[in-house]
Amino acid sequence: MVSMASWDDKLDRLLGAKSGNALESALGLITVGDLLRHYPRRYAERGELTRIADLELGEHVSIMAEVRSCTTRNMASRPGTITEAIITDGRAQLSLTFFKQKYLQTKLLPGTRGMFSGKVSRYRDKLQLTHPDYKLVGDEEDGASLQEFASGLIPIYPATKELQTWTIANCVRQILDQWDGVADPVPEEMLAEAELSGLSEALRRVHQPNSWAEVTLARQRLKWDEALALQLVFAQRRHSAISRPAPVCQFKDGGVAAAFDEVLPFTLTDGQREVGELISADMSTDHPMNLLLQGEVGSGKTLVALRAMLQAVDAGRQAAMLAPTEVLAGQHARSLREMLGELARAGELGAPDVATRITLLTGAMGAKERKQALLDAASGAAGIVIGTHALIQDRVSFADLGLVVVDEQHRFGVEQRDALRTRAAGGGSPHILVMTATPIPRTVAMTVYGDLKVAALRELPKGRSPISTSVVPIAERPAWLDRVWQRIREEVAKGHQAYVVCPRIGEVEGEEDEAPPKKKAKSAKGSKDSKEPKEPKGESDRRPPLAVMDVAPGLARGPLRGLRVGVLHGKLPTDEKDTVMRAFGDGELDVLVATTVVEVGVNVPNATVMVIMDADRFGVSQLHQLRGRVGRGSAAGLCLLVSEIPANTSTRQRLEAVAATTDGFELARLDLELRREGDILGSAQSGTRSALKMLSLLQDEDVIEAARVAADEVVAADPELLSHPGLAGMVSDLIHEEHAEFLEKT
């Protein structure tokens, strides 16, 4: 009698050491539950071919396609042959390249259909798979044929180079043959109310569906599990936050906040006024304010934050502002002092009766400056303390911290964002204002920031100039790069300035965005393909990303010769960074070649052009943030996205989408659609698998809202889930320990 497989059984015991070890090393799947929760990414229908135009450069894919042709030729530069097969989906083509495998001409015959798996690369501006694995329809070698994958639909699993989708499907089939189901963690009354199927039935249907209707029913149940697990975590956090005290910071007539409003040289936007009133009301209570303020680049979030900090100061408290970089922290300190004027001169001769002091604290400060900054924070002499991660070190103390402002929250690690929460006097929690210029779709805010209020600033202040964006496809139009540099010269001739952004620093110790490359990136004019494709050696075939330290001297000697070119990146000494930024801000530099250190907070109204090199290496929201550095004055802004990515690829379509709109909220939705939603839950930081494998934060708003209601009801009656062990187990099953820690601290 064959023993049945249980949820926690190890895969190597049931499938054998070879298969079990392969699943663990390639995908981290150890138990039966792990494998059954590894859902198909999509399904291929009999006769249906995969859209080649949707493939992403650098992505590992498994596609169904038809062979159009297959030819073999001798390599010109070395002994051996190259076999090239052209496959098609009926609309677009993809090249398959095999080295020293001439026999494939007899297998990859025109008209043959199959599944091909490999990493999408580029050769001579065309997409290809080099040495892909494949399984042809009807091929009985090496195990089950494609027809045995499923009775009606072929599941396509998230796979790796070492473990193909058909191998995963075969392992799932073996496990399901031995599996007798699992106890359902969700109460029967909840399933009935939501009209959901049982868990065991859903798992069988999602892996071995007979129809699209079965796929739909299975996905509904599995999405519910993920949504409910997340919302239970947030419901517990909201419940525990109710009893946590916060310092009361009521608005004070005749205080520094009121004095600041009187001298403002402009009128607040309606959005700034409304959000300000919301913040003021929340800070006036003894419950911690937890507010996420999102707004377009240049929408005036810093002004809103300053008014909130002044309200804390008027209440006899302090405010701390946490910035992700020294450049931004210094910029905030300077700009807030300028905005406040004499109101920032507390303790100085001739200062107004109502005033405060702003102190800057960064890790690179000299010993004397740092000692004074620490003393100002600890004594309460500084009403507003601005700093980088140096603020959250144990030796930094505050006299009475009432408000923490976190600027560009996505740039901080989990522990960094959490460290200031416990700094309020009396062991309470200060009010928290989290700001981001990366707009967040409503369902994301409701899910990932489930215990925070969300406010948005959509209206731009008067005087902001329009920004036009264009893609510069230098692989197809190499001459256009010359025109890019001409445009910079034209703007400089008008008295304006320009940024050139690169994804990497270059020849310095350490890297800001990527590890040092194994070879130097080519010039800003781009690289040329060799005459023959290269046999893969396990590394990416893309050239290294362009670097500031390579591009800047090339521009200064070449197309921008005669212009004043400066360099800025995160590894420069603090005083040098400040000097460069001041020089650029004062108009002493024409062009600033920089990394993404200029992404947030840098305000130079005279800068009108931004050129982003290797733009395809940046995310949608990051591109939107970067271009927000231009068009900040009276002159219109121009952003040029330079890329070698071929046309008709999803990466190129992403760049075109950024060029087509300046609506950050629309781009935020696009950004979420294009990247793994699970990264939002910290899987990228923790290195663990995503908690969101089935749930779409954009498409499943109704599921998320219903799960939130159900979670609130459960937690209100049973905060620790002691009477719901199944739900508690589901939370720990779906939300790994690292994810729970991330959610708890975010």
TrEMBL record:
Alphabetical list of InterPro entries matching this protein: DEAD/DEAH_box_helicase_dom, Helicase_ATP-bd, Helicase_C-like, NA-bd_OB-fold, P-loop_NTPase, RecG/Mfd, RecG_dom3_C, RecG_wedge
Record-linked CDD domains: DEXHc_RecG (cd17992), RecG_wedge_OBF (cd04488)
This protein's record includes keyword ATP-binding: yes
Region feature (Disordered): 509-547
Domain Helicase C-terminal intervals: 480-673
Span of domain Helicase ATP-binding: 282-457
Annotated protein name in UniProt: Probable DNA 3'-5' helicase RecG
Organism name: Allokutzneria multivorans
